[in-house]
Description:
The chain is of the alpha+beta class. It has a single domain (9-110), classed as GIY-YIG endonuclease (3-Layer(aba) Sandwich). It is 27% helix and 21% strand. The protein has helices at residues 29-38, 64-75, 79-88, and strands at residues 9-15, 21-26, 54-61, 102-105. The protein has a four-stranded mixed β-sheet. The protein is globular.
Amino acid sequence: MDQKKTKDSYFYVLHCKDGSFYGGYTTDLERRLKEHNSGTGAKYTKPTYRRPLRMIYAEAYSTRSAATKAEAAFKKQTRKRKERYLIDNGVQLPFHQQKQYILKERKEVAHADAKEL
Length: 117
């Protein structure tokens, strides 16, 4: 019996040149990072003072719904809570010196509510 290979959906976090974070959703992390760094990825990442951007964290989900819920929960948090979440998941300080992004496999909905983040 053939099983369809499901395409992972990702919630990701970028560290912007200005020190801010950008959280988003994609099915292709490399393509999306290139789009953001070219200024076509999102309104928030378009200004040159925010680029270059570095991907510092990503979570893989089996559904788009789960990934977008994780994104929404992350965006609702304060800067301090976002930093704590990233550090608790293996991202190292200072963020701009991290060489490679952390990728976590999350096949279940991990962020149904911002309070759980």
